[in-house]
Amino acid sequence: MMHDTAGELAQPFDVKDWKRGEVDLIPGKTAPQAVVERDYPNVFKRFTALGPLMSKLGNGGKGIGWDTQDEVRQLGELSGFVLSEGRFCGMPKIDSDIDACEVVLQLAPETNGHVAVKAWEALGKQTGLDHIHWRCTARTKRFVPRYPGATAQDHQLTHLEWHRKRDGFHNAGYTNVHELIPWRTLTGRQQFYLDHPWMIAFGEGLASYRPPVDLKTTAGIHKIRSNGNRKSC
Fold first, then answer.
1. Which of 43, 65, 123, 174 could tie 60 with a disulfide, CB 3.0–4.6 Å?
2. How many whole angstroms separate alpha carbon 84 and alpha carbon 81?
């Protein structure tokens, strides 16, 4: 189940496992909505080309998405296109580590002003609010990132996924408060107690202060294997 989607509420009170026969297999309710396809013979091709879904479905995060066809085309013009037959034909190449960096810089709203504008517009459709002042901040930058420039000087755009004030200082929850953006929780509000069975089982239902571990109290178990034998790890 994806975060920030309706799937998070599929089993709100208890979690049943269809693989153990506890409940029927219902996509989107008791199992993931989509079937994950594995294409092992083409693993290398998958790692050396941008996936075709980036052109068809676009990019996104936090429950929203936006079109990236222009960015995909620009990546291909920069790094070259895959010419061999197959599902990756016509997609941008990722042959080197620099190519991989270019993909991140081109598609991320944190580094590409054009993409940041799309992201804020997509968020506006979800919240029903106009975040135009943030969009103008991103549009003013208007730089298309490239790897050599990124290594020479750091650039950080204001993006909805990062709580960041326009004057450059990081501040947790700033956009949630001042832009009335719901928190990334099931209720859209700040949560201090999670009554999910899995969280409770881990003892993490409540936010609690956990002081640093006193290393003197753990000295007796250093370099001891899990079976109790005192051997060097």
1. 65
2. 9
Looking at residue 55, its amino acid is S
Tokens 């755009």 sit on residue = 157
Contacts of the segment 133-140: beta carbons below 8 A, 24+ positions apart: 134/158, 134/160, 134/166, 134/175, 134/179, 137/166, 138/109, 138/113, 139/113, 140/113
Place of tokens 């309706």: 6
- The model's pLDDT over 78-90, given as tens digits with 9 standing for 90+, comes to 999 999 888 889 9
Q: Each residue of 28-83: pLDDT tens digit?
A: 888 887 777 888 988 999 999 999 989 898 998 777 889 999 999 999 999 999 99
pTM for the whole structure? 0.69
* Contact by Cβ (8 Å): 141, 148: no
Q: Find residue 170's DSSP bridge partners.
A: 164
Which residues lie across from 64 on neighbouring strands?
A: 61
